[in-house]
Structures are given as structure tokens and as C-alpha cells.
């Protein structure tokens, strides 16, 4: 009878050599893949400067996918949590004042609405105050890491649109808003602008807005971070392209949703 020769076990040295070979091979393959990925990203085109800080297009596409997910998931008329008025801060925090420093030139202030056709409407504060008033108490969040429950009053953006017969403009994808001097500006996706809690506010804590909080009119958009809540609105535009956005140009997320 012939018995099978048992396989000779590998010596320690052979085992080590084998493992070294496998690790080295894996390292080489993964390094190659990493280098390939990196050079693909490096050689890919940059995005247009106005909407972003010139991020590489594939990275921006990934962010846009995330944005789309959250848009569908959160923005479809889901309401941001609100609080009783008594919970609102009496002393309201104040942040940066780009384009909204000092006091506004009220003698000349009119809200300028620029339709996509180029047609312009100039609307006075009295006309805005004559519309039905909406109030909101919500947790205002700044990307710098603070938040505060605050209380605002004004006209719902959707009501404003309806009153001034701007419904056709809401077929476009974006709204742009800027201070009278155009130094601070934000771009908003239409669903967030038309969200039922988005208001053009002229009051804080039931009193006219103070200059440092955006007198005479500011945006309150609770579905977004503070950076999008533009103080002292001078003009509003409608467009299918992303309007320029001050902080997106510095690299912040264009959507800046919560
Ligand atoms: N015109 C203008 N609006 C602005 C800003 C600004 O610098 N200029 N800063 C934004 C930021 S980052 C925040 S957190 C809020 C702060 O609003 P508040 O000063 O009323 O608290 O305003 C936003 N709107
Ligand atoms: Mo902020």
C-alpha cells in the first residue's frame, strides 16, 4: 500500500516571506489605485467660480448628490420645530454685518424685484407691511457653532410672491438676494425659498428690526443656516442658474441646509 505523503508544513521563514509578498503586492495595487484616483481628481475640471469656491467638479457632484438627498428628504414641506414666544431670547445675538452695517438709507430704500425677463418692480416697506403677517419662533443656527431661539415677524415669501404675481418666476430653480450695496448676497434653491416658514422679516421680538439685525427687511429662512439669512435685502432676482453666493464662494456648502 502506498500512503500519501503528508504535505510538508511551511517553515517560519517561508511563512514570513509569503506574507511579505502578499502585503507588498496589496500595497502596490492600492497605491496605484490611490494615485490613479488622485490624478483623475487633480486633472478634472473646476466648477464655475460664482457658485462655489472653485471646487473640483467631481467633488462638487458628490456634494450635489448629498444636497439632492436632503432636499427630497427634508425640504418637502417638512416644518422646522417652533417654540412658544416666551422661549425666545430677549437679547438677540448679533453676527457679521457685511453689506448691512450702520443704518439703512430709508429715504431711498425700496425692494427691487428683478424678473428673469429683466422687468423690475420697486416695492415699498409699507406695501410689504400691508400683507398678512406671519410670525415664527425657531432655533436660529450659525455655522460658527452657536444657536439661539429667536422670534421674527414679516410676510411669508410665498405670500409675497402670490401678491405681486410672481408665480411664473417660481418655475425657475433659484432665487438670489443681495444687500442694497451688493456686498453680501445669497443664492437659494426655489423649494427652500417657497417653504412655508421662509419669511421676509421686518420685525424681531414684535418690534421693527434694528439696523444690526437687518433693518428694514431681512430674510428668515429656518431650513438653512444663519449665513443664508440675509440682512437688509435690497434686491431679489430669479434664475435657473445658481446665483452668486457670498459664503459658497469662500467654500461653504451652497445649499447650507439643516
Ligand atoms: N447682510 C448680511 N447679512 C447677514 C450676514 C452678514 O454679514 N451680512 N451674516 C449672516 C450670518 S453668518 C448670520 S449667523 C446671521 C446673523 O444674524 P444676526 O446678526 O441678526 O444674529 O446673519 C446672516 N446675514
Ligand atoms: Mo453665521
TrEMBL record:
Residues 102-247 form the Oxidoreductase molybdopterin-binding domain. Keywords: Membrane, Transmembrane, Transmembrane helix. It holds the Pfam family Oxidored_molyb. The chain crosses the membrane at residues 21-41. InterPro entries: OxRdtase_Mopterin-bd_dom, OxRdtase_Mopterin-bd_sf. This is Molybdopterin-dependent oxidoreductase. It comes from Mucilaginibacter aquariorum. The lineage of its organism: Bacteria, Pseudomonadati, Bacteroidota, Sphingobacteriia, Sphingobacteriales.
